[in-house]
Amino acid sequence: MKLNKLFHFIPFVIGLLLMTTVFTGCSDDDDELQQTAFGYVQFKIYKSASAATKGAETRGTDMLDKLDDAKKIKVVMLYNGNTIEQTLMLNSYNADNAEFGLRSDKLELLAGSYKLIGYYLYDKLNKQIYAGTPSNYQFSVVAGGLKEQELFVDAVARGLVNFKLVKHGLPETEAASRANSGYEDYPFANIKGINITVKNLFTQEVTTIEKVQVKYVENLKDSYALCDTTVWLKAGSYQISSYSTYSDKKCETSKLLEIATVPTSETFFVKDNEESEATVPIQLAATAEYLKDYMALKEIWKALDGPNWKYYGEAAPMGCNWNFDKEIDMWGYQPGVQLLDNGRVASIVISGFGANGIVPDAIGQLTELRILNLGAHDELVGGHLFKDVTYNMTQEQRLKIRMDYEQKFLYRDVREGLSDILIDGINANPNFKPIVKSNRIDKKDVQFGNLTNKITGISKALMRCTKLENFFIANSPIVADNFCTKLVDDASLSAYREAFEEEEEEWSWNNFTMLTDMEIYNCKELTTLPMNILAELPELQMLNVACNQKIPGDVLLKNWNDFIDGKSGDKIQVLYLGYNKLTATPEHDQLKKMVKLGMLDLTSNEISTVHAFGKEINLSKVYLDYNQIDKIEDVDGYYCGYYDMESFTCSYNQLKEVPNIFNAASKYTIGSVNFSHNQITGLEDGDSHRGINTSNLDLSYNHLTEFPGTLIKKGSPLTVLIMSGNGMTTIKKGDLVGKNSYLLTSLDFQFNKLKEIPFEDFLPENMPYVYGIEFSYNQFSQFPVAPLNCSSLTVFGIRHQRDESGLRCLSQWPEGLYKCPSLSAFFIGSNDLRKIEDTISPYIRIFEIKDNPNISIDLTTVCPYIQAGQYQLIYDKTQNIQGCDILLE
Q1: Bridge-based pairing state of the strands 102-104 and 112-122
Q2: Kindly report the CA angle at 61 between 58 and 65, in degrees rounded to 5?
Q3: Last residue within a domain, chosen from 443, 476, 504
Q4: For the domain that residue 301 is a member of, what is the CATH number?
Q5: Could you tell me if residue 207 is inside a domain?
Q6: Distance between CA atoms of residues 60 and 121, nearest Å
C-alpha cells in the first residue's frame, strides 16, 4: 500500500507549553486558567461513501477494506504556525457497528484555531493502513468546550443483509425429490442452521456466510425461517447461488440435510450502511413421502368426519380439531400427531376426538407409523395414556403404557383391607411401606359399553404399516368383518386403492415384528376377536381385550385357545381379559404353552373353574376377582410358578376352601394373596394344607368360625393377616405359633365373635415385632392383656364389644397400661368402662374413650400434653373427665 508521509517539527516551546497546561498548577488561579484556556476535540471517522448525504469530499490515498480494521489515528495539525501531532485510540460499540463510524478518544488542546493537515490510521499491530490529506480542514477549540470533527476515508461500501428462508416447490409447482441428489427429503421446520453462498452480479465475486442459526416462524396459514445473524456485504446487486442446510444450530457435518444450488433467485441490493432483506428459496419436493403422508392425514380426517371433531380429554386443548387451512408442509403439525425427524408421520392419537366412519385406504401411506391410537381404555378418565410419550418411547414409558390398565382398573394394595387405625399406624411409621389408597376405577365411575367414537371399520391397507409398535382401538362399534379385512375406498375414486390393489397379496401380519402392544377394548359390537390379526402377529407382548361383552363366552374361549396356538402364544407377557363373558379358561395343556406370561387379568367374568398353568409358568400377577370360581385346579400342587409373583387375588368368588396351591416352605415369598369375600370355611386338605408363602394375606369376609391355625403352624411367612368379618369364635392355643410367627406385625380380627384369645400365642416370645392389633367389634368381656406385653406394640383397638344380645360387655380397664411404653394409639371407645383409677400413660398420643357413657377418669398426668397439642383425646363432653378443665371449654 502506498502511503503519504508528512514531515514536521514541533518547537520545544509549544511542547513545554502543552506539558505545563496538563501537568502543572497548584493554585486556584492556575485551575481557573486551565479551565478557561483549554478545550477538547474528538475526531469521528466515516466512510466517504456514506458522506454523499453530508456533501463531503474524500482524498484518501488508498481504499480501506473495513473501518473496523482501524484501531488508532494519528492527527497532524497546525496551530499558530507550529505543527502538532497526536495519536488517539479509535472506538466503536462492536465490529459490525464500526461500519457506521468510529470515534477517537478526546484530545485536550489550547483554545484557538487549528488546521488539520493530515491523518494516519493504524491497525491493531500499529501498522499504518491508511493516510488521508484533507483539504482546508479548519476547526476551532473553544475553552471548556468539545469540538467534534468529522473525517472521511475511502473505504469499501458495505450494507447489512438479513436472510429469510422461504419455501419453494410445494405441490402447486413442479419440483423433483431430493432423492435424485442423494439426499433424503426433510420438512422445512427441521432446518436449524444454514450456510448461504451469494454472488455479486457485477464483480462475480462469491461470498459464503457460514454457520448461521435459523429460527422457525409459524403463522396460522404459512411459515418461514429467519436467520439470527445480520451480515455485512459489499455494496452491489446479488443473487443466492447455493445453500447447505443442517438439522442443528452448529452446522456440524454429521447433521447436514442437503447441499443445493439455486438456479434462479430474486436479486437483492446492498447499499452502504443500509439494511436490506434477501430471501433464500428452500426447495421442497412435491413428491416427498412426508408430504404424501400429510395428504393422507387429510384423507383420513375427512373419512372420519373430521370437520365435526371436538377433542374431549386432558391431553390436548378441549374442543380442538385438526387444521388443514395452511401450507401443505404444515399439515403434519396436528394435535395427536407426531413426526419423525424427516417429517414422516410416526404417531396418530385420535382418542377423544369423536371420529366417525371407516379408517380409509389412505392409512396405508403412513408406512413409518409407530403408534396408532383410535381409542383407549382411559378416554373417559382423562385420556392421558400417550400424553408426553414420543414415538421413540423408552422402556420405562412402554412399561407404563402396558400396565396403565392394571393401575387404573385392577391394582389394589391388599393392606387397604386393614382397619383405619392400623392403616394410620403403618403410615405413621417410616419403617413400613406406606399404604396409599388405590385409584382403582369402579364400574360406577365408567359405564362399560359407552362409546366415545363411531369407528365402524379399518382398511386392510393398515397392513402396509409394518413398523407399528402400538395399536389401540377402544369404545368403538367396530365389527370383526371390518377389522382390516378389505380395502374400503371407492375403486373409481381412490388413487390409494388403485395403487394398493397391485400389492395386496404380498401383505402379511407376520411382517409386523415391531408390534408388541395391542388393545381392543370396549368394542360392544364385536362378536369375536379379529383372529385374522391376533393369531398371525409374531411378537405380541401385551394384549388388552377387556370389556367386549357381546362376545359369547365359548367364542372368547376359542379365541384364547387360537391365540395360544398362534404366533405370539408363547411370547405374550400381559393379557387382559376382564369384564367379559368367559365361563372357563383353557385347559392346562394349552395354558402351559404361554411360557412368558407374567400378568393375567380375568376379573369380572363368569368363570367357575380355573385350570392350572403349572409350575413352569411363573406368573407375577393374577387377577381372578368377581367371578363364580369354586375351584382352582393345580398340577402337582401348583397353579403356577411363584418365582417372581407379586400378587394373587381371587376375591368375591364362591370358594369354600383356601386352595392348597401354595407352599409355605417355598423359598419364594409372594407379595400378597387375597381370598376375601368368598365362602371359605376351612383349608383344602385340612391339616395337610401346605400353608401360603406370602407376606400379606387377606381372608376377610368369609365363614371361618375357627382360626385356620395350620397356616401359621406350617410356617407361612406372614407379616400382615386380615381375618375380619368371618364370624370367628375361636382361636385355639397354638394356632398362632409357628416357625415364622415372629414375622407378624399387623393382625386384624375386627367384626368377629371372639370372646377370648390364647394368652401364650400373643406373648412377645412368639410375636416380638407385632405393631398393631385390631379386636374391635367382637364379644370380649375380659380385656385381652397378653399383647400389651409386646415391646413393639404401637396400635391397639378394642372398640365396640357386644354380647349375643347386643349389650355392651367390656367394662374392664387394663391395669398397668402405662407400663407399655411403645403403645401410642389406644382405641377403647363404645364400651362400658366405669371408674378408672389407673395412671393414664403419657406415651399414648391418640386415646379414644368416646361412647363410654359411665366412664369416670382422671387425666391430670396427661393434661399438660393435651394443652400443648401433643395428645389427641377422642371423647364426649358429657363424660366425667377430671383433672383437665381445658376439655370442658
Answers
A1: unpaired
A2: 85
A3: 504
A4: 3.80.10
A5: yes
A6: 11
Cα→Cα distances 602→471, 640, 650, 671, Å = 22, 15, 10, 19
Mean model confidence pLDDT for the chain: 88
> Is the residue at 876 inside a domain?
no
Q: How many domains would you assign to the chain?
A: 3
Alpha-carbon distance of 554 to 585, in angstroms, equals: 10
- 174 and 273 share a domain? yes
Q: Are residues 176 and 299 in the same domain?
A: no
- Could you tell me if 341 and 278 lie in one domain? no
Indicate which CATH number applies to the domain containing 232. Answer: 2.60.40.3540
Tell whether 644 is covered by a domain.
Answer: no
DSSP 3-state helix, strand, coil percentages of the chain (rounded to 5)? 20, 25, 55
Scanning the structure block, which residue is given the C-alpha cell 479509535?
A: 90
Residues 6+ apart with CB under 8 A from 174: 286
Residue 463 cell numbers, joined: 397392513
SS3 label, residue 308: helix
Query: For the whole model, what pTM was predicted?
Result: 0.79
CA atoms within 13 A on the CB side of 13: 4
What is the extent of the structural domain holding 199?
Answer: 158-283
- Indicate the helix (H) or strand (E) that contains 457: strand 454-458
pLDDT (tens digit, 9 = 90+) per residue, 859-883? Answer: 999 999 999 989 999 999 999 999 9
Domain co-membership, 125 together with 173: no
Residues 325 and 382 in one domain: yes
- Cα 849 from Cα 835, distance rounded (Å): 12
Q: Do 247 and 213 share a structural domain?
A: yes
Q: How does DSSP assign 110-154, residue by residue?
A: ESEEEEEEEEEEE-TTS-EEEEE--SSEEEEE-TT-EEEEEEEE-
Write the secondary structure of 238-255 as one string of H (helix), E (strand) and C (coil). EEEEEEEEECCCCCCHHH
Which of 116, 138, 153 corresponds to the end of one domain? 153
Q: Average pLDDT for residues 704-715, to the nearest whole number?
A: 96
* Ramachandran assignment for 843, one of left (phi > 0), alpha (psi -120 to 50 degrees), beta (any other): alpha
pLDDT at 441: 66
Nearest Cα to 610, choosing from 655, 550, 580, 576? 655
Which run of H or E residues covers position 497? helix 495-501
Same-domain check for residues 317 and 374 = yes
CB-CB contact of 767 with 793 (8 Å): no
C-alpha span between 151 and 46 (Å, rounded): 6
pLDDT in tens, 393-425: 889 989 999 999 999 899 999 999 999 999 999
CB-CB neighbours of 402 under 10 Å: 19
Sorting pLDDT into bands at 50, 70 and 90, what band is 183?
A: low
pLDDT digits (tens, 9 = 90+) for 274-306: 888 988 888 877 668 888 999 999 999 999 999
Assigned domain for 132 exists = yes
Helix (H, G, I), strand (E, B) or coil at 73: strand
List the one residue out of 98, 288, 272 whose CA is nearest residue 175.
Answer: 288
Both 165 and 94 in a single domain?
no
